[in-house]
Amino acid sequence: MIEINKWIKKNTFHHSAFEDLEKLVEEKNRQNLTISLCIPTLNEAKTIGKEIVLFRSELMVRFPLLDEIAVIDSGSADNTLEVAKSFGADTYLASEILPDLENKKGKGENLWKAIYQLKGDIIVYIDADIKNIHPRFVYGLVAPLVYNKTIKYVKAFYDRPLAFSEGIRPSGGGRVTEILIRPLFSLFFPELSSIIQPLSGEYAVRREVLEKLSFPIGYGVETAHIIDVYREYGMEAFAQTDLDQRVHRNQETISLGKMAFGILQTFLNRMKSYGMMTDIPEMSTILRQFQARDEIFESIELEIVEEERPPMIPVPEYLKKRGKNDTTYT
Amino acid sequence: MYEILNSLPGLQENLREIRDILLTNLVMLGEIPSPTFKEQGRMNFLVNRFNQYNLLNCSTDEKGNGLGILPGQKGERNILIVAHLDSEYDEKIDHTISIQPNSVSGPGIADNALGLAVVASLPYIMDKLRIKLNANLVLMGSARSQGTGNLEGIRFFLKNTDINISTGISVEGVRLGRLSNSSVGMVRCEIHYWVPEGYDWTQFGAVGSIVTLNEFINRVLEIPIPNRPSTNIIFSSITSGLGFSKVSTKAELKLEIQSESEEMVEQLLKKINNIAVEIASKRSSGVIVKVIARRKPGGIEFSHPLVANAIKIMEKLDIKPRITPSMSELSAFIDKDIPALTLGISDIDTVEKATESVKIEPMYKGLAQLISLLTAIDRGYCDRN
Hints:
The structure holds 2 protein chains of 2 kinds. The model of chain A is unreliable at about 160-165 (pLDDT under 50). The longest helix of chain A has 21 residues, at about 255-275. In chain A, strand 10 and strand 11 form a beta hairpin. Helices cover about 40% and strands about 20% of the residues of chain A. By secondary structure, chain A is α/β, with parallel strands linked by helices. In chain A, strands 1-9-6-7-5-2-3-4 form an 8-stranded mixed sheet, with helices on both faces. Chain B folds into 2 domains: about 1-185 and about 295-380, 3-Layer(aba) Sandwich (Aminopeptidase), CATH 3.40.630.10; about 185-295, 2-Layer Sandwich (Alpha-Beta Plaits). Helices cover about 35% and strands about 25% of the residues of chain B. Chain B has helices at about 1-5, 10-15, 20-30, 40-50, 110-130, 150-160, 210-220, 260-280, 305-315, 330-335, 360-380, and strands at about 55-60, 65-70, 80-85, 100, 105, 135-140, 165-175, 180, 180-185, 185-195, 230-240, 250-260, 285-295, 300, 320-325, 340-345, 355-360. Chain B has an 8-stranded mixed sheet, with helices on both faces. In chain B, strands 11-12-10-13 form a 4-stranded antiparallel sheet, covered by helices on one side. Chain B has a 3-stranded antiparallel sheet with strand order 4-5-17, with no helix packed on it. In chain B, helix 2 (about 10-15) packs across helix 11. Chain B starts with a helix and ends in a 7-residue tail after the last helix. The interface of A and B includes residues 50, 82, 86 and 131 of A.
C-alpha cells in the first residue's frame, strides 16, 4: 500500500496545475508534438455543438494546443455530425474509415479507428455527453503527457462531492467501478486499484501505446486498456487528473448490469490470455435480466458479445498511411 | 460618418470569424450562476479574460464590479461599455447552456450573459479586426444591478472613479434594434402585510393576509392613471400562504410605478402608501411599504447626434430601431449627465420555447452596430457640437 500511496502522490494531478496554457503550448511546440481530440458519438446533437465551440475557440484559436478536433460517429439518427460540422469539427462516420474491414458498431470501434484517421502523436478522447464541458477536460489530460515523457496514459477522475463536512471523505468511481472493477483489480492487480475512476471515458494516450493495444469495441475497452498498459509498461506509465465535476446523464441500474457483463467478459478473457486463469470454461454471451408485468415476472435475454479489434500496428492501411513497414515493429 | 456606414457590410461579414470566441465566452460566463449580490464568479472570469488580453487596470472594487481598460492611441476620451453581471436566476438552478447551429439556450442567456460576453470579447474582436481607436474603452461588468441591487455597482463606479467618462454604452443581450436614450421615472416597492401577534380572530371581518392584500390591490386598481405623462403601475409578484387549512398570516406584493414624470411617480407612491396604511388599519394588520429602487426620468434627446448616428447605423444594417425607455445602467449615466445609450445584440429564439434562447445569426449585426457606434463616438461624430 505504501507504493500505491507513493504513486498516487506522484502521478495524481489537479487540472488547475496546468491552466497556464501559454506555457503548455510552448512546451508542446518545443517537442514538436501534435495532439488530436477524438469525440466518439452516437446521437449527441444536443451537446456536441458546445463541446466543439469551446475546444476550438480556447484550444485551437486562442491557444493552439490541439491540431485537430474529430467527431467519429457510429451512425446517429439525429443530426450529430451536421451540428459538429457546422461548428468546424472534422466529422467521420466510423463505417467509412477503413471501409474494407468488416463493419462493427460500438464506442471502442470509433476509438480504434481514430488511431488510423487522426494524425496526433497524442490522442485525447472525450465523451460527447458532458453537460459542463470546459477546456480543462482536454488540457488537464494532455498536460501530464507533454510535461513528463515517462507518462503514457492519463485518466480523468472527478472529485467534487455535492456536500461534505471536513477532513476525510470517500472518493471513488461510479457504481460499476466500486462494485466490480475495484474489487477485481484489488484481487488480481492491486496496484491498479489506485486508479480512481478506471472507467471514465476521458483519457489521453500516446500514439506509440495506442497503436499496440487491442480494442474491445463494447463496454470493456477502458478495462482492457488499463490491464494491457499495466502489463506492458507498469504503473509509472499512468497518471490521473482530477477534473472536478462531470455532469452527465445518469444510467439506470439495469443498464449498468449490461455494462458489468461486458466488462467481466473482457476481464476474464484478459486473465486467460495472460495465463492468470487457465481453467475458465467457455463463457455464455447471454445476459438474463428480469422485468415484472403485473404479477408475472419475465426474463429478458440480451446477447452481449465483447468483440475486439486487434492492435492497429499490423493493419496494412495504417502502416501505409504512417509511412512505415511491418518490420518496423517486429 | 459616411465612411463608417459604408464599411458596415464588410464588418458584419468579418465578425463571423469571431463566432466561436463570442459563443465560448457566452457559455463560460452563462454557466456561472450570478444572482444579484453573488456575482463574484462571473466577475472573476471577466477580469481574468481582461488580464489575458493585456488590458490595463484589470481590477475589481468594493461593490464587486469587474473592470479593464483597452487603451486608445491618444486616450483623450474615455468610453464606458458596461453590461450587468447579475441575473435573475438562483444559483441552485441548473445553468447548463446548450448550443445549436442557430441558437444558444440556457437560463439568463439573454439577460444578460450575452451582453456580458460581448464586453468580454470586445478586446479580442478589436484586435482581430485591427480596429484601433483614439479613445480608451473602459470595459465593465457591473455588480448589484438588478432588483434590490438598484444599480449599486455602476452608481458606485461613476461616483468614485477618477476617469472622466465622456460617453456610456450599456449592452443588453436582447433585442437587436433596442435603442434606449432615456429613462422613465420609476419606483419599485414591496408591500408587506402580516397578522400581528395576539390578533383577535373572533372580531367582525377577521381575515388573513391574502384577503387584506387583495383589498389593497383592488383599491390601487381604482387609482386613475393618466395617459399623459405616460404612466403605469405594474403588479410584479405575490408571495403568501403555506397550504390548505391554514389562514395566511403574511403576504408580500412587489409593485413598480413607472412614469415619464417624476412628480407623478411620487404622487402615486404617496397614494399607494396611504391606501396600504388605511387598509392595514381597517383590518388590524401590520404593514410596511418598502421602496427598494428608484430611477429618475431623463436622458439625451432624440435629436442628439449619439442617437441620430446610432439610428443611421441600424438602418444601414437593416435593423429596425425600437426606441424604448430603459431601467438599466442607462439611468446611472443619466444621473451623472453622461450621454449614453442602451443597445441590444440579438433576438430571442421563439422556436426554442423550453428555456431562454437567443439566435446566433443576428449577433453579427448586433456587434457591427456596437463597433461602428464606438468608431463614430471616437471620431467625434456623436458629440453635440
